[in-house]
Specification:
Strand order of the largest sheet: 1-2-3-4-5-6-7-8
Order of helices and strands: EHEHEHEHEHEHEHEHHHH
Number of strands: 8
Number of domains: 1
Protein name: TatD family hydrolase
Largest sheet: 8 strands, parallel
CATH topology: TIM Barrel
Radius of gyration: 17 Å
Keywords: Hydrolase
Structural class: alpha/beta
Organism: Ramlibacter pallidus
Family: Belongs to the metallo-dependent hydrolases superfamily. TatD-type hydrolase family.
Strand content: 15-25%
Number of helices: 11
Distance between the termini: 14 Å
InterPro entries: DNase_TatD-rel_CS (IPR018228), Metal_Hydrolase (IPR032466), TatD-like (IPR001130)
CATH class: Alpha Beta
């Protein structure tokens, strides 16, 4: 049994075949996908998809969307969390966080939206799904002020930063990146961190594993980039299991238990 802790099944890349994609994942053994929103405009879409496929969802404003977001969107988030507080499939606030990698973003604006959403999550008693890209220290600074936990998605920080998140009660998400032999830091973290701190994700349709990746030269020749799907999760998990020297079934059980611990409403749903 596998749980994909981060999958954008509402993305445009899945517009024509989301149901078929989810069915393939189910056949591969993915029993739940966590579907995070990225802005107020797709709150309904992730909720509808989660209910249609028996999955779970999160509501939040992604840091890459903060340039267009307004204070009214935070009010919409607060209202949606209150309106659907009895929905067992609403498990977190996310995807929220900070991105200091993409050029042209207003760092102060991102930080304001992040702090406001942490406060909203705390008020509603929900964990968070964090976007962490060259921003771990600033994320941790705010987390030390607001007692929330959750999942640090697609973690790519240092060992010291990883330990700081774990000490605050977070699980760390690993996915397609660890399938690349040159991803030495990610692989080292995925092996050396305690098993209880790890969860698995695809970030589909993004972060394709190595067997789906196409080089720039291949793309120039007309070969499209491989689309990542939640059905790839067991194969990604098998790579991690091999790196850690354990059986895939044991890793699936452990990471699923970790996910349920990070997202208590999912645990209640699966009980």
């Amino acid at each position: 049994m596998w749980i994909d802790t981060h999958c954008h099944l509402d993305a445009a890349e899945f517009a024509g075949d989301a149901d078929a994609v989810r069915e393939r994942a189910a056949r591969a053994g993915v029993v739940h996908c966590v579907l995070p929103a990225v802005n107020a405009g797709n709150f309904h879409a992730v909720r509808a998809l989660a209910h249609r496929h028996g999955d779970v969802y999160a509501l939040g404003i992604h840091p890459l969307c903060t340039g267009e977001a307004r204070e009214a969107d935070l009010q919409a988030l607060d209202h949606a969390l209150a309106e659907h507080r009895d929905d067992p499939r609403l498990v977190a606030v996310g995807e929220i966080g900070l991105d200091y990698f993409v050029p042209g973003l207003d760092a102060a604006r991102q930080e304001w939206f992040y702090a406001e959403q942490l406060a909203i999550a705390h008020r509603h008693g929900l964990p968070v799904l964090l976007h962490v890209r060259r921003s771990a220290d600033q994320l941790l600074k705010q987390l030390r002020r607001v007692p929330v936990t959750g999942i640090a998605h697609a973690f790519n920080g240092s060992a010291q930063q990883a330990q700081a998140f774990v000490q605050l009660g977070f699980r760390l998400g690993f996915g397609g990146t660890l399938t690349y032999e040159r991803a030495l830091q990610i692989r080292r973290l995925a092996v050396e961190l305690p098993l209880h701190s790890l969860v698995l994700e695809t970030d589909a349709p993004d972060i394709p594993p190595h067997w789906l990746y196409r080089t720039a030269e291949q793309r120039a020749e007309g070969t499209p980039q491989g689309r990542n799907e939640p059905g790839e999760l067991p194969r990604i998990g098998a790579v991690l299991a091999q790196l850690r020297g354990m059986e895939s079934d044991a890793l699936a059980a452990a990471t699923s238990a970790n996910t349920r611990a990070a997202l208590p409403r999912l645990a209640a749903l699966a009980a």
